[in-house]
Write a structure and sequence with these properties.
13 helices; 349 residues
Length: 349
């Protein structure tokens, strides 16, 4: 065999295309993570102001005009209302002005991300200093002392997502990525469902009773984990049913390359650039991270949107997988397997 023939048999055309695809994923991975996380700064953070009527409008205007627009301030009726809005995740912090003294109170919620609460403290300390006032910080939803920088919820969801798409990929690769019939698709979805229940429970138990990293209901985290794993796995199966083995790469593109840096894990959503801030809540890692923090630190508040997002990924994934498996078509093996077999036959000759 000549060197050229040996090269052709060693690296098949489809394998070469897949290598090019992996190279593109590598560059997109670097671009996405560095682009999202290299220069975090707060932008339009929902922020409440509790102050006497004659002071409130002036202070809201002053905060709204800060360079770089770090805050999106709005007047709030009182301290109790501000606390409720923070716990309901409507705002990320609030300033309570004391008209009788020179020390005001900043309410934050480090459970939603310690980096963001620290950034709010820095901003408001500066603003107050220009008025010869001081600020004391009160954390109304503090992160657990075992949850460094509030990252445990994010890593938990990342683990669930990884399990979801790897399980789906293994189920597909074991016997062709495109289901040959509806029965095979149903079996794969059934296996994925069982895996999701076990994976959700395992993650909830590890971060809760075993490590003590996250407070909150283990049962609620279990339910969330089951939905996250199944949503990601079903989406991966759907992509594989449409695109074959390339669907695995597309799943990685959506979940790992686009989803993880935009999830609000390392830096909460208001600190991400506009593009990542916009796509994060619509992807499973972002929806899962938001919901996990709500369960752990915010009494389960404001989870409806995230649960609808995850449910949509799960339902669409199931429907596409079943529809594609129902289409009448000639059974076919994977192109890569065909090329490998052909190369082996050529060497044997």
């Amino acid at each position: 065999m000549s060197l050229v023939d040996e090269l052709k048999s060693a690296v098949t055309p489809r394998a070469a295309l897949l290598v090019v695809g992996v190279f593109a994923l590598q560059l997109l991975f670097i671009t996405s993570y560095v682009g999202a996380l290299h220069h975090p700064k707060p932008r339009d953070v929902p922020f409440g102001v509790v102050a006497p009527q004659q002071v409130s409008a002036q202070l809201v205007g002053q905060l709204d005009r800060l360079p770089g627009s770090p805050l999106d301030p709005r007047a709030v009726a009182g301290e109790a209302a501000a606390r409720n809005q923070i716990l309901n995740r409507e705002i990320d912090g609030a300033l309570i002005v004391d008209p009788a003294g020179r020390t005001d109170t900043l309410l934050v919620a480090s459970g939603g991300g310690t980096v963001l609460s620290s950034a709010l403290e820095t901003i408001l300390t500066r603003v107050e200093a220009t008025q010869q006032r001081t600020v004391r910080t009160v954390d109304v939803a503090p992160a657990s002392s075992e949850d460094f920088d509030g990252l445990s919820a994010f890593y938990l969801v990342v683990g669930w997502c990884v399990g979801g798409y790897i399980c789906a990929a293994i189920l597909a690769i074991s016997a062709g990525s495109r289901p040959a019939n509806r029965e095979r698709a149903i079996i794969r979805l059934g296996v994925l469902a069982v895996y999701s229940v076990l994976g959700g429970l395992g993650g909830a138990v590890i971060v809760g009773p075993v490590l003590g990293a996250l407070p909150g209901s283990v049962a609620a985290l279990w339910g969330l984990g089951t939905l996250v794993v199944f949503a990601v796995g079903a989406a991966t199966l759907a992509l594989q049913s449409v695109f074959g083995i390339v669907g695995i790469g597309l799943a990685i593109l959506l979940i790992v390359v686009a989803g993880n840096p935009s999830a609000g894990g390392a830096f909460p959503l208001p600190m991400l650039p506009p593009f990542w801030n916009a796509i994060g809540p619509a992807l499973p890692p972002g929806a899962g991270t938001w919901a996990a923090r709500s369960i752990a630190y915010f009494k389960g508040n404001d989870m409806t949107g995230s649960m609808l997002v995850l449910s949509a990924w799960a339902v669409v994934g199931v429907v596409v997988t079943l529809v594609m498996s129902s289409l009448k078509r000639r059974p076919e093996s994977e192109p890569i397997a065909d090329e490998v077999d052909a190369a082996s036959d050529a060497r044997a000759r």
